[in-house]
Amino acid sequence: MAYKQLKLWFDKDLAILLSDKIIKVYPKFPSQEFISSIDKKVDSLELKDRVETIADELHEKLGENYNKGLKILSKIIGPENKEETGMFKKFYWIMPIAKFVEKYGLNDFEVSMKAIEEITKRNTGEYTIRPFLEQFPKETLVQMKAWSKSKNKHVRRLASEGVRPRLPWATKLDQFIENPTPFFPILNNLKDDPSKYVQKSVANCINDVFKDNPTLGKELINKWAVGKISQQRKWIIKHALRNLIKVNDRWAISICSK
Question: Is the model's pTM score more than 0.85?
Answer without folding.
Answer: yes
